[in-house]
Design goal:
heterotrimer, B: 0% strand, globular, C: mainly alpha
């Protein structure tokens, strides 16, 4: 035998040996470490949260997912901030005044410090907003601040554009708006409106958010971010209200797999799981009832109909499609997770709004809705020999699939043949944006608690986000008028009229209002279910 | 042998370059972009962001920029995990993936070859059927079933291991992911070993060896195993590359800080620089391991010192 | 057994595994295959599964896309006829598993055949010619390995549109790579063997050598790897469905059913167990048939 073969044998034997040793070692250690598991120090209060998505950035200006803003909300204090019940309360601003016309706000900034001891000033807020709106930064959410005078011009790079904000002194900030927006204060809780520590950003550039550099004005500061695993925050002793912050450390574990997150919660390796595995809802209700939290959430799940396609120009067809959807069956039999059937586009309880404008046929029994739908389809010229055929698109997800299957079945009853077509999210939304679909699943979660934030989706000027290409002149007029209206009651009426038009025309078929679903250990104190679904760690405590 | 090795290493460079080029254009021509999402961006904002990432330039120019930066060792920023560069993300994740992957492959090799040989020596016996039956079950159960099962059984029902997590990288967090990674590989390797071992044992050089009265263990260890390992070694190249670069399923179920997640997530997010980053890592692994495999062929079969 | 060994010994003693007439080779193989009990039993079971899949609509009071609103995600129940229970939409799982068999068996067989045809030919050619040809062909394989599968699939979808046959092409076109590497490895070692060199010396064409001498002699590992490819393609199909290229609802496949079941392992075990059982059973059958085929076709055993 040659040299080579000997080496080969040596190699194989070597591999065998080392692996055997490894396995033995593994078994030994496995045996001994079971005793070590899950006893962490009692002295410190550590909150372990399962977060259903990897954070994008610790820089408030680069945040666009809710999973990231949960972390950012713990670290930064906006002029206003979310209270324990999710409602806006005084944050970095201790008080404010509003001008008569509702267009000028003056904030008195609280005397407080960044986590490195430097005072937070009005200029820090202006610097934050200017940075957000700088076209070169490319912030996804810059348009949320367009309500500030000059903001849109600055962000679109217009010559000589100037932001309508002014630091009267270090602790006084004046802001001018383009319209008397009643939701402006609520918007200031959002990460787009946070201040930035100018002195740190200037020094480290884009690396200012690294754990070793980052400086914050909120209750917690970042100490570690291990991608795909966790983000660890510890209490910021410089926080103005640090004395009333009971929890010392909060760890956000990234978990995109809901079942895995749920299992960790069950094994007491997590205190909170920010989403549940909905497919297992019946099991959860039976086994984890004391931890399961389901609460209304400011969002709408809907099917968009492309109204500029010939098939769907006829309002009778759109209305029939909407009538035939048995929303109660979807929420109660298919989803079973407490969602409410939707007969309006704006969820009930949305801010600065009365009761939403429901579809006129909301109260009919399902059989009558079906009969009406059949009648409308016949009137529109469809029948057994000439069925309406189209493709229903949805992005891949277990729930979207189940709802689409149910819808397809329901439409069959009125002689409509819908073909199902799922695609991964990017392709789905790329096609929605350019209107390359017939009927498609979509959803909207409010950026701020105001009806306008839902209704603008059907305005012509909204552009690509108006997925249905709905263009109703009266609707557009009403929404414009509402924007200029300073009187809350009148503004609400105008929007109500607009929604009534939308509900009659059904460019969007509302299916259900979202709920937030999570698991919260009973030993967590201070967790109050709320529609914005904001639960800042500073308000929470862990019972011993 | 040496000159062949050198030639192989030289050809690796154009191979890698072709991979990068094809992957770049394939990824960019595919529909959907990083900013197509539930909340479509206003056109003016999308314009700003695209400019910030040079995505508004002609594709050819973007390619030139990318290649230029790559030559300076710059893999670019991640679009979705903005606080990290692609290089940082890969450096942070690669050790965990490689460690789990190597352990799993080593375990799989030991058990796979062992079981396979054992079954082959007792071909068509009850032992053979039992071992191969278990192996087939291992192959039939996909990792997205096996991983949650392991986590449930050992983490929740028996509570002897953490259901998931990484801690500070202690061994107890690694056991289940390694097992989950190794099981299907054990099954594959056992199947392949058994198949070729059966064949080799029937071949006439083994018969001759037996006829000469050599002891059975000697026949197997010295003669049969070399021939039988050939298909296993061929399989091992790509399999090791795949296992060592992590698995999205295992990582997301066990919360492993690896890079396997990026292969799917970066693609789904259209995080172009990150996709390119992991493609390059994978390509390097494939090229290297297939090179190693070809070297091992030479060792297993001296006749192969061909070129 | 004795007979065979003697025969082989004689043939091999004669210097080369003689070229056997195609007809007798196949007849011989068939006879030996049908003598293998495990293989025959497996063929019968597979036949039954196939028949069940074909005649599925006659076997259940429920249609595969029919929602039974009274029984959504409920366990097996003989009284209401949902013998395998229902899925998350209240559809009968029994009939869905049978419909899934249609897609999965087709994917498994067709994609595997595609990968077999490409992989074996490619690997044998590369290994036989060796040198530069081999080097370039194998680097091409490295390139294909490295390209991101997901974008490959999306590109196919863009170019050809959504088409169920694309699944087979896409999967077959990816799965042949390892097959090619295995075949090439075996061929490299074969081509130095006396009988190949003898054939070469007597002027047999390369084409003939590859298809008459090389390929029959690498069939062992090829068949084993083929039986490993089948479950791979069946399960990978569910990822294609995830991307939107696989089967579209309300049609389904075992891969899709199993991935749905995996999400409810504890809560609704039946949704995982039944499709998984069918898949496992099928794989066992393919496995035994593969082993039987290998034994029947083994040129050394002839």
């Amino acid at each position: 035998m040659s040299e080579n073969t000997k080496t080969a044998k040596g190699l194989v034997n070597g591999l065998l040996k080392s692996s055997r040793a490894f396995v033995l070692g593994t078994a030994l250690i496995a045996g001994s470490m079971t005793m070590l598991s899950s006893t962490h120090a009692q002295a410190e209060k550590i909150l372990r949260i399962g977060n259903d998505g990897e954070p994008q950035s610790m820089d408030p200006h680069f945040i666009s997912t809710i999973q990231t803003s949960r972390i950012s909300d713990d670290m930064s204090l906006g002029l206003l901030t979310y209270g324990p019940d999710g409602q806006p309360v005084a944050g970095a601003a201790e008080s404010w005044t509003v001008s008569e016309d509702g267009m000028t706000y003056t904030f008195k900034i609280r005397d407080h410090n960044w986590s490195d001891g430097t005072p937070v000033t009005a200029q820090d807020f202006i610097a934050g907003w200017e940075r957000l709106l700088d076209p070169e930064l490319g912030a996804e959410y810059a348009s949320l601040l367009y309500i500030i005078e000059g903001a849109e011009a600055v962000n679109t790079g217009k010559e000589g554009a100037k932001l309508g904000v002014k630091a009267i002194d270090d602790h006084t900030l004046e802001v001018k708006l383009t319209a008397p927006a009643p939701y402006f204060l609520a918007q200031l809780t959002h990460q787009t409106a946070f201040a930035i520590p100018r002195h740190v950003v200037e020094k480290y550039g884009k690396d200012w958010v690294k754990p070793e550099h980052i400086v914050v004005n909120g209750a917690y500061k970042l100490v570690e971010w291990l991608p795909n695993v966790h983000t660890k925050l510890v209490k910021n002793e410089e926080f103005y209200d640090a004395a009333n912050v009971p929890i010392d450390e909060v760890i956000y574990y990234t978990y995109e797999d809901r079942t895995a997150m749920q299992n960790r919660f069950r094994a007491d390796e997590l205190d909170v799981a920010r989403d549940i595995a909905s497919e297992q809802i019946s099991w959860l209700r039976d086994n984890l009832a004391d931890s399961l939290r389901i609460a209304p959430y400011a969002g709408i799940y809907y099917y968009a109909i492309r109204t500029d396609k010939d098939k769907f120009k006829d309002v009778r067809v759109r209305k029939a499609l909407s009538l035939a959807i048995n929303r109660e069956a979807i929420t109660d039999a298919v989803l079973k997770t407490g969602e409410l059937p939707a007969y309006s586009f704006v969820p009930p309880g949305t801010g600065n709004y009365t009761e939403p404008a429901y579809v006129s046929w909301k109260g009919l029994p399902y059989a009558e809705k079906l009969a009406e739908a059949k009648k409308l389809m016949a009137e529109a010229g469809y029948g057994p020999d000439n069925p309406l055929k189209f493709t229903l698109r949805y992005n891949t997800s277990e729930n979207h699939k189940r709802i689409a299957i149910a819808a397809q079945n329901m439409w069959k009853q009125i002689g409509v043949e819908a073909e199902l077509f799922n695609s991964e999210g990017k392709i789905h939304y790329a096609d929605l944006k350019v209107g390359d679909f017939e009927v498609a699943r979509a959803g909207w979660i409010a950026d701020y608690n105001d009806a306008q934030n839902f209704l603008f989706l059907a305005e012509e000027r909204t552009g690509p986000l108006n997925y249905s290409a709905f263009d109703n002149p009266r609707y557009n007029e009403l929404m414009l008028a509402a924007e200029k209206e300073g009187d809350l009651k009148k503004r609400s009426d105008l929007m109500h009229q607009a929604e009534a038009i939308m509900m009659e025309a059904q460019p969007y078929i509302p299916i259900y209002y979202y709920v937030s679903k999570q698991l919260v250990s009973p030993k967590i104190k201070g967790w109050i279910d709320n529609a914005p679904d904001r639960h800042l760690t500073r308000w929470l405590d862990i019972a011993e | 042998m040496l000159s062949y090795a050198i030639r192989r290493l030289l050809i690796a460079i154009p191979t890698l370059f072709i991979v990068i080029t094809v992957a770049f254009f394939m990824m960019r021509i595919a529909p959907g972009g990083p900013f197509d999402q539930e909340r479509a961006l206003p056109p003016e904002i999308e314009k700003n962001i695209k400019a910030a990432y040079d995505l508004d330039k002609p594709l050819i120019e973007q390619y030139a920029i990318y290649i230029g930066k790559l030559f300076q060792g710059d893999f670019g920023p991640s679009i979705k995990i903005r606080d990290f560069s692609v290089a940082e993300l890969i450096m942070a994740g690669a050790p965990a993936s490689m460690q789990l992957g190597l352990s799993a492959i080593a375990i799989a090799l030991v058990f796979g070859v062992g079981f396979g040989t054992y079954a082959a020596l007792r071909q068509n016996s009850a032992v053979d059927f039992a071992v191969m039956g278990v192996a087939m079950i291992g192959i039939a159960i996909p990792n997205f079933v096996m991983a949650p099962l392991l986590s449930l059984v050992f983490g929740l029902y028996l509570s002897i291991l953490p259901t998931a997590g990484w801690g500070d990288g202690e061994i107890q967090y690694k056991i289940l992911p390694i097992i989950a990674l190794a099981l299907p590989q054990i099954a594959y390797i056992a199947r392949l070993t058994r198949g070729s071992m059966v064949e080799v044992l029937h071949s006439n050089y083994i018969r001759t060896a037996r006829a000469k009265g050599l002891r059975e263990t000697l026949v197997v260890n010295r003669h049969a195993i070399k021939g039988a390992l050939l298909p296993v070694v061929s399989y091992l190249g790509p399999a090791t590359a795949a296992v060592m670069t992590g698995s999205v399923v295992i990582e997301s179920i066990f919360g492993v800080p690896g890079i396997g997640t990026y292969f799917i997530k970066a693609a789904l997010n259209r995080d172009y620089p990150l996709v390119m980053g992991v493609v390059i890592v994978y390509a390097v692994m494939i090229i290297m391991l297939n090179f190693l495999v070809d070297m091992v062929y030479g060792l297993l079969d001296p006749k192969l010192k061909s070129r | 057994m004795m007979n065979k060994s003697e025969k082989t010994a004689m043939l091999e003693a004669a210097g080369a595994p003689a070229e056997i007439e195609g007809r007798s080779l196949w007849r011989d193989a068939r006879i030996r295959l049908f003598r293998n009990k495990a293989a025959v039993g497996s063929m019968i079971i597979l036949g039954i599964i196939t028949l069940l899949a074909i005649f599925a609509p006659l076997l259940s009071p429920y249609a595969y896309d029919q929602i039974d609103w009274g029984y959504i995600q409920e366990g097996p129940n003989w009284e209401n006829g949902h013998i395998f229970g229902t899925d998350g939409n209240g559809r009968d799982l029994f009939i869905r598993v049978l419909y899934g068999a249609r897609v999965s068996l087709a994917v498994g067989l067709l994609a595997t055949s595609v990968s077999l045809a490409i992989g074996v030919t490619y690997g044998a050619v590369a290994g036989y010619f060796g040198g530069k040809v081999d080097n370039i062909m194998m680097r091409f394989v490295d390139v294909l390995y490295s390209l991101p599968f997901m974008f490959f699939v999306i590109m196919l979808m863009v170019v050809f549109g959504r088409n169920i046959f694309l699944i087979f092409v896409a999967l077959g076109a990816v799965e042949w790579l390892t097959m090619a590497r295995i075949v090439r490895g075996q061929t490299l070692s074969l081509r130095r063997r006396e009988f190949i060199e003898a054939a070469h010396a007597t002027g047999v064409s390369n084409f003939k050598i590859i298809f008459r001498h090389i390929i029959p002699n690498v069939l062992g590992p090829v068949i084993v790897y083929m039986t490993l490819t089948i479950p791979q393609v069946i399960l990978t199909e569910s990822f294609l469905s995830f991307l939107g290229l696989g089967v579209q609802e309300p049609l389904t496949s075992w891969g899709v059913l199993i991935s749905e079941g995996a999400k409810v392992i504890e809560a609704s075990t039946w949704m995982l167990i039944y499709p998984a059982l069918f898949l496992a059973l099928t794989l066992f059958c393919f496995n035994f048939i593969g082993d039987g085929l290998r034994d029947a076709l083994d040129p050394k055993d002839r």
